[in-house]
Write a structure and sequence with these properties.
Layout: H1 7-28, H2 33-51, H3 53-61, H4 66-80, H5 84-98, H6 103-111, H7 114-123
């Protein structure tokens, strides 16, 4: 197999999946604070397990990512203090800045998925 995924990485991917699910469910249920907080905790734990603790710390404390880290953590704070709409907006903004280096890799990965790749190649050729 080209890419071997260890059991720890499978757990990290599963936690990220649960985080996305609970965040989506929290948004659908009129920005439920508890579900959004649970989704954030699962997502952060999943990223930490998937990348490793040191790489996650480097990602959040990299000088180029301060703007994204601050807005993401501020969004998390706003969710905990019962301002979920402002918190989600800040978290999305922070995620775009934090993971801006990965968008090219994600796009190339999505090209190789049969149906999704055809749609992406039709919308924006490489």
């Amino acid at each position: 197999m080209a890419y071997e995924i260890s059991e720890i990485k499978k757990i990290g991917i599963g936690l990220i999946g649960f985080g996305i699910f609970f965040t989506f469910l929290g948004i659908v249920l009129f920005f439920d604070r508890g579900l959004l907080a649970l989704g954030n905790i699962f997502s952060l734990a999943g990223v930490a397990i998937l990348l490793g603790w040191r790489s996650t710390w480097t990602l959040f404390t990299n000088r180029a990512n301060y703007k994204g880290s601050a807005s993401f953590l501020l969004g998390l704070f706003f969710i905990f203090v019962r301002w979920p709409i402002v918190g989600i907006i800040l978290e999305i903004y922070g995620c775009v800045f934090l993971f801006s280096d990965f968008w090219a890799s994600i796009k190339m990965f999505l090209y190789h998925i049969p149906v999704v790749g055809w749609i992406i190649q039709f919308i924006s050729p490489p």
